[in-house]
Amino acid sequence: MRSCSRATKAKVLLITSARRADNYCFAGPEQSCSKLLGVIGALLGQALTRQMDTRKTERSSSVFQSGFAALLFLWSVMCQAADLSLWQLQRTLAQKKYVDLTHEFAPGIPRWPGFPDETRKTIYWYEKRPDTMGSGFFSELFTHVGQWGTHVDAPAHFIKGLRTVDQIDPKEMILPLVVIDVHDECAKNPDYTLALERVKKWERDHGQIPAGAFVAMRTDWSKRWPDAAKMENKDANGVAHYPGWTLPALKYLYEERKITASGHETTDTDPGIATTKDDYSLETYILSTNHYQIEMLANVDQVPEAGAIVVVSFPKPKGGSGFPARVFAILP
Known about the structure:
Blueprint: H1 2-24, H2 29-53, H3 58-94, E1 98-100, E2 119-125, E3 134-135, E4 139-143, E5 151-153, E6 174-181, H4 183-188, E7 193-194, H5 196-206, E8 214-218, H6 228-232, E9 244-245, H7 247-256, E10 261-264, H8 272-275, H9 281-288, E11 293-295, E12 308-313, E13 322-324, E14 326-330
């Protein structure tokens, strides 16, 4: 009877451990192994103590050894699954469609009118040349402003003391992508501005904008690239006409929906009629919240309004106000 009782207790112990292990399957890869190992250690300690406190029999010893082996096997399987879970995710993402949201940059591309053009010089070439510093490989010297081509604006771009490019957390670079499609409105009215009601219409159609999202305004203005005159779209009086955001929409997105960043296809956050008067109050608002933005996006027309992921990457200049970015979307 005693042997049967100990065997029953051992079986209950194994069932308990399996249930606890099952719970840890959903604790997250970074927690599963360490927590599960703790459970196994505690359970094995209990089993060993029970064996030492009772008369050892061949049957109870066999049950204990079997339990020990089962727990170790379970632990090894769980840890292997945790280690490989991100690899499995990568294999899934690799099968998806990717859309590059970045323009190529080069001298002569559209830019804010107060910035100088890019210069580029080859300083090393494969063969010897009199105009290079050496040979054997290809290397260039680039000179351009941080806000060049498709680029990131760090908060410090407008607000002294706020974050610079190198202080933007990598966790802010892989985000749910929300696309608010207003290209038809912009085709009819180049001075179109994205109102709060239009943002709320998106939510009626697709559900609440998720916290931490990247919100892009689709205007199809990037199809005018690389013609700087068409991007500015100035009239006979020198007034620029291109679309922009509105303050109520931005405040709703950043303060109520808690988005991480926003982006657009134009050279500025503010509409052209405002920037012509040196009014950059909307860009000032975004950067004052200590969030970054992306300007001059491309190919936004190839991305669905909901369901995609955006990856926003850029170099890490220490203390930088901005830099060319590489932005792409992964479609569902």
